[in-house]
Records
---
Amino acid sequence: MKSRILSYVLAFAAVLALSIPIDAYAQKVHRVAIHVDDSDPMRQNMALNNALNVSNFYEKKGEKVIIEVVAYGPGLMMLRMDKSKVKDRIAKMSLEMPNLSFAACGNTLNGMAKKEGKMPVLVAEAKNVPSGVVRLIELQEKGYAYIRP
């Protein structure tokens, strides 16, 4: 009786294994969160270099990677249309890298709006998230590797 049950379990496991495409095993998806909290364009460019290098590395290996740059505090300057020194590079990279996204901290944005008397305009590639720190936590909880250049 036990051997019959074991045979059924093994047969069921084999059917399940065959129903999963082989590519699912071969196509590991890497996830990377890049933290930017510095207004220095050199640091912002370093973050963008990290994104590009990681993407190129995995592309050459035939593997996928998803990259999200999360900016808050002084780092939000990289995503402001009026103050960013890297906005042209962000636009170019976004066109060339569909696996790259940008998150702007809503807390920082609201603080800037209060101080300046108007809501700053973000580059088109940025999405507003409620909190940059919370976004980094959420991404890490989803298995994203955390990078702080």
---
Amino acid sequence: MLFRSCAGGVVFHGDDVFLLQNEKDEWVLPKGAIREGFLSAEVALRRIQEEAGIEAEIITTAGETSYEFYSITRKAPVCNEITWYLMTAKDGEYAVNKREGFKDGGYFGFEEALKLITYSQDKALVSIAYKKLKQALTQKTKH
């Protein structure tokens, strides 16, 4: 099995979270493989920019997930291990990168996002990230 390290972002603008619809009609979070010489945080920020046209900043880590699939091009099973970051967008602007194979995307309210997200571990990740965002904002207002 081929193991790939990846990084991605759970990006919020206010209470809304950004989702992408991929070529399989799955609603997912922006992410990408970490190439040699790059840090996971750099990759996460770059993928958010490339896939969604979003300028974001990292608040904290959001968690880790992994999934396995069979790669037809590599003719081998692959395990993607993803480090996720909780991020906030500088504004509400975005531009879905259709050349990367994405059909649609946008910011969705928390409840609506949970209904749209295809994979249960991504739903759990968004729930955790939302709680961390609320905690971070609460602590910010206390200082």
---
Amino acid sequence: MYGRAVDFHVSLSGRGDLTARIYRQLREAVLDGRLHRGERLPPTRELAQRLDVSRNTVATAYERLTAEGFLTSRVGAGTFVHTGPLDHVRPRTAPAGAGVRPRAQWRSIPAFAQSAPSPATYDFSVGVPDPLMFPLETWRRLVAHVLRPSAVRTTTYGDSAGHAGLRAAIARHIGTSRSVLAGADDVLITQGAQQALDLVGRILIEPGDRVAVEEPGYPPARLLFRSLGARVTGVPVDAEGLDVSAIPDGTRLVYTTPSHQFPLGTSMSLTRRAALLEWAERHDAVVIEDDYDSEFRFSDRPLEPLQRLDRSGRVIYVGSFSKTLLPMLRLGFLIAPASLRPALKWAKQLTDWHGDLVSQATLARFIEEGLLARHVRKATREYASRREQIERILQADFAGRLDVVPSTAGLHLCTRIAPQTTVEVDGWVRRAREAGVAVESLAGYCDVDPGQPGLVLGYGSIQQRDIAEGFRRLAAAVR
């Protein structure tokens, strides 16, 4: 019932005698929640020495608070915040700042996934891997090795490019698994793909520059570029990928997910890749190749990445381990042409210096010991089984209502409403949520209004035993 001791700050500024000032600040701390019920306050002698006042001054304040029911004194144990309910408890908040405003573009950018909805019993959320498949015990063993005393005796910060061992491991990993051209010095470690996009935007985008993104596409990327002052234009995606002919003149930067287009799941054809690279060189533009969600490939050999095909140094390759391992690890990387690397490293140092070196060193060992490749193979088999089950149910129970967009990789399936079908997809999503099923609308990934009607169904969060019941409830919701 009675908890830890707290190191509480007391200021002697303000009105009243010293006892009144100490009393008032302790009382306010209890009422606004800074001091929790059951926490032990510093002994009167200790607090008096810290404040350079008499012990009696502190003791009198404690006695008054005890008499009023805010504190409880236990002989031989100390003085504690009262454990029972207190009247007039109010949360502490920062000043409202009514006269302070962000830059204009921040007032026009909508929040995306700012607060996660309550968990659903049958969760088909997009972009979330199965945490039960994460090799937790192995990861803990590697973390313990990284944190051994001899390894943490350093008095300096690390390289802003990230842990040297991880950069070397990533260069080898993506060289063999993706055929990306890179050495350790070409790799810059980031806290996920989103930070990589932010760094690229910081060094390349001037306010007013035009940036092209896929439509439908990844909303956080679109919103990030817009926050940097760019004019963001959506470019249609068809069965071959980004429509290069629709990229507006004057575009400075193109963001694309060619290996596994998000959210449709299609791959950019080799012809379209060559056309995009030719366009970038002709228009003096840069291409960000986000290798989104392509680790889990179920059929077809992957095409050469844009970075491999690039001959003029215009492609920045971005990758992440959020879907492969866990989103909470916040580990990613980028590989940029040599001409951009100094600016990117400097931008990284100015924003967060070098990130979490413990996680980086752990991932380096995870890759070097072959554990990442083993985990990907195991997870791919499991996700393939879930995906096949979902496809069978869609073909059997949703034929004529939902058409599956063909794809060969990733953690989700995209569906479109069948032609000549008039439905309110948002109503489907809402009724499904009421039935305990979480699905997402394809229109939510579109910037134009109205967006493309359809559903996006993830299979990382849901166990295979729950898929059939989840779809049974979804079918009832969409009738």
